[in-house]
Design a protein that fits this description.
Rossmann fold; GMP Synthetase, Chain A, domain 3; four-stranded mixed sheet; binds adenosine-5'-diphosphate; 2 domains; globular; alpha/beta; nine-stranded mixed sheet; about 30% helix
C-alpha cells in the first residue's frame, strides 16, 4: 500500500499544535499534503524561532507519519516539510529520507530567500524564485522519447536526493500525467497558485491535468506563450534544485517563450539513431544555438533493442545520434536501449521501476539511465563554470 493524503493527514493529528489542546490539523497549521508511493510532502504554517525549532516540529511530523505507515507495511522513503510564512513564502525546508528520522542537512540559507543554490551553479532562474537550475528537454520531432527522457531524468535526479520539478510544457500532447501516474491526483489551487503534483519524488505541473484528456489542444502562438507562462509562473514550485522542462517537439513558440522568460542552465536534445531523426534533431540543436541556450548534449534513445535474454539488436542503427552529436560539436550524454519494461513502466506511470528492475534487460536500462543522469550532472557543472550568469540573447537569422 502506498502513502495517501488521508493517511498522512490523520497521522499529523498526533502532533501538538502551537496552541494548547490543538494539533497540526485542528490548529490549522497544515496547509497542504501531497502523497504518492513512498513519498510525501507537507506544507506547514507554524511559528518557530529558529531552524532547530522548525526541524524539531518537522521531526515530530515525520515520526507520526512513520508510526502510522509502519503497521500497514507502507514505506516512507522521502518526507519533506516546507514551512511557509503568512505570505506563503517558504522560510525553511526539512527533508527526511527513509527511516533515519533525522532531517537531512540543508545548506544554510537566509530566511525567506527561497532556494539555496548548489555550490558553483547558477543561483536562480529569473522569474522563478527558489528554482536553481533549469534544464530543457527538446527533440526535433515527436515520438523519439523526449518525455520519457525528461521523466526519467527528473526521477533519477530526485533519487540522488535533489529537490526536482518537472514542467510538462508539451502543451500540444502532454504525456506526463500518464508517465508519472497522476490519474488519481486532483488539481489544487492554493492562494491563487497551482500546487504541483508530487509523484516519484518529483513535483510536477502539466496542462494534461488542467484540461479534459479528450479535448484537442490547439494553441496559436500567443496562446502557447500564455499557456507556458501560466504553467511556469503560476505553480508554487517551492525550493527546487532542478526544474526539468519537457518541451513540445520541433522548433516552435514554446521554446522561444521559454528562452525569453527563463535563464536556462542548458538544453538536452533527444534523438533516435536513424538518419531522418538526426536531420530533425540537428534543427533543434540549431534552434537552441540561435536562442543562446547552452547545449548540455544529445541523448540517443532507442539505441538498441535489449531482449529479456539480455541480447542486443541494433534495429535503428546504434550510434547514429552519437555521430551527429560529434559532427555538430555537442556532448553525447549516452544511449538508452529499447526495452519492454521502459514502455510498460511509462504506460503504467511507474518510472521508479526503471531504476530498480532486476531482470537482465532491466539492469541494462537502469545502468543506462544512471549513466545519463551522471553525464547530465557533469555537463551542468561544466556549463555553469563556462557561462556563469549569462542570460540567453535572442538572435534571429
Ligand atoms: P516524445 O515525447 O518524443 O513524443 P515519448 O517519450 O512520449 O516520446 O515516447 C513515445 C513512446 O515510446 C512511449 O510509449 C514511450 O513509452 C515509448 N518509448 C520511448 N523510449 C523508449 C525506449 N527506449 N524503449 C521502449 N519504449 C520507449
Amino acid at each position: 500500500m502506498s502513502l495517501t493524503k488521508p493517511l498522512v493527514t490523520e497521522a499529523l493529528r498526533a502532533v501538538p499544535g502551537a496552541a494548547a489542546g490543538t494539533d497540526l490539523v485542528s490548529g490549522q497549521h497544515l496547509l497542504w499534503v501531497s502523497a504518492c508511493d513512498s513519498y510525501a510532502s507537507i506544507k506547514l504554517q507554524y511559528p518557530a524561532p529558529d531552524k532547530a525549532a522548525f526541524d524539531a516540529i518537522a521531526a515530530r511530523a515525520h515520526t507520526a507519519v512513520l508510526n502510522a505507515a509502519r503497521p500497514l507495511g507502507t514505506r516512507v522513503d522521502s518526507f519533506i516539510v516546507e514551512f511557509v510564512n503568512e505570505a506563503g513564502a517558504v522560510v525553511h525546508t526539512s527533508r527526511f529520507g527513509g527511516t533515519t528520522g533525522k532531517p537531512q542537512p540543508e545548506a544554510p540559507s537566509p530566511p525567506q530567500a527561497g532556494h539555496t543554490p548548489i555550490p558553483g551553479l547558477r543561483p536562480q532562474a529569473p522569474g522563478l524564485p527558489g528554482v536553481g537550475r533549469v534544464i530543457a528537454v527538446g527533440a526535433g520531432k515527436g515520438g523519439v522519447g523526449k518525455s520519457t527522457v525528461a521523466v526519467n531524468l527528473a526521477v533519477g535526479l530526485a533519487r540522488l536526493g535533489q529537490s526536482v520539478g518537472l514542467l510538462d510544457a508539451d502543451i500540444y500532447g502532454p504525456s506526463i500525467p500518464t508517465m508519472l501516474g497522476l490519474d488519481d491526483q486532483e488539481v489544487i489551487v492554493h492562494d491563487g497558485l497551482l500546487q504541483p503534483f508530487l509523484a516519484h519524488g518529483v513535483r510536477c505541473m502539466t496542462m494534461g491535468k488542467l484540461v479534459p484528456a479528450d479535448k484537442p489542444l490547439i494553441w496559436r502562438g500567443p496562446m502557447a506563450h500564455g499557456a507556458f507562462k501560466q504553467l511556469t509562473e503560476q505553480t508554487r514550485w517551492g525550493e527546487l534544485d532542478t526544474l526539468v522542462i519537457d518541451l513540445p517537439p520541433g522548433t516552435g513558440d514554446v521554446a522561444l517563450t521559454m528562452a525569453q522568460m527563463l535563464r536556462l542552465t542548458g538544453a538536452i536534445v533527444v534523438c533516435t539513431p536513424q538518419r531522418v531523426a538526426q536531420d530533425d534533431a540537428s534543427r533543434a540543436i540549431q534552434m537552441f544555438r540561435q536562442l543562446g541556450v547552452e547545449l548540455l548534449g544529445v541523448v540517443e534513445n532507442m539505441s538498441t533493442f535489449v531482449g529479456d535474454d539480455g541480447k542486443e539488436y541494433d534495429i535503428f542503427g546504434r550510434g547514429g545520434a552519437q555521430h551527429m552529436a560529434q559532427r555538430l560539436g555537442v556532448p553525447f550524454l549516452g544511449a538508452i536501449p529499447i526495452t519492454m519494461s521502459l514502455r510498460q513502466n511509462s504506460d503504467s506511470g511507474d518510472p521508479t521501476r526503471n531504476f530498480t528492475g532486476t531482470g537482465r534487460a532491466e539492469r541494462v536500462l537502469a545502468e543506462a539511465l544512471a549513466e545519463l543522469v551522471r553525464q547530465v550532472e557533469a555537463q551542468v557543472a561544466l556549463a555553469s563554470l563556462k557561462h556563469a550568469q549569462t542570460t540567453p540573447k535572442l538572435t534571429f537569422s
